[in-house]
Amino acid sequence: MKELELKYGCNPNQKPSRIYMKDGELPIEVLNGKPGYINFLDAFNGWQLVSELKKATGLPAATSFKHVSPAGAAVGLPLSDVLKKIYWVDDLGELSPLACAYARARGADRMSSFGDFIALSDVCDVSTANMIKREVSDGVIAPGYEPEALEILKSKKKGAYNVIKIDENYKPEPTEHKEVFGIVFEQGRNELVIDDSLFANIPTQNKELPKQAKIDLIISLITLKYTQSNSVCYAKDGQAIGIGAGQQSRIHCTRLAGSKADNWWLRQSPQVLGLKFLDSIGRADRDNAIDLYIGEDYMDVLAEGKWQNIFAEKPEMFTAEAKREWLDKNTDVALGSDAFFPFSDNIERGYRSGARYIAQPGGSIRDDLVIKACDEHGIVMAFTGIRLFHH
Question: What's the CATH number for 270-317?
Answer without folding.
Answer: 1.10.287
